[in-house]
Amino acid sequence: MMRRVTFPHQLLPPRRLPALLPLALALAALAPGIAAGEAPVSREQAMLIALDIISPATLDHNVTAFLTAAPLPAGSAIWPFDHEEHQRTITSPTWFCWINDDSQAFFTHPTRFVFIDQMTGLADVRVEGWWPMLNGQELFMSDEEMTDFNLIVYSCIHKESIGGAP
Fold first, then answer.
1. Which listed residue, of 56, 82, 141, 144, carries a Cα 20 to 30 Å from 154's Cα?
2. Where are the domains of the chain?
3. Nearest-CA neighbor of 105 among 48, 163, 61, 55?
4. Count of C-beta atoms within a 10 Å radius of residue 116
């Protein structure tokens, strides 16, 4: 599933665009990978995309979702535990969200891997059965990560404030 999300900063009225041209040119020089007129998707925007995919208003089950603290760099490899044949190699900076659709199950169950391209905002959702592995290491499975309310962006089971304000 691929989605294009437009953010308010992309809807500036035409009369303001000429005033922003010098700033846009300066930013383009600093970040040549950014398409003209596009700003990279921030973590807060990636969080909103993930929440749109989770769709809390329609949930009928407990969900916990995690979002990486920074985009994964190109060359990173991610796959579900025990299924390296499902490996996906990141080709451009990508936010990664793991939606655990039964976070208290200790057996194979549906989980969603959400890849959000940092430059386009397009989201690719893949249904898997286990937690993610990043470059051969478990991701979001340590006690520290599982209770880090900066990484947890949605939870039906945690009671503390999570994910920061999007």
1. 82
2. 43-155
3. 61
4. 27
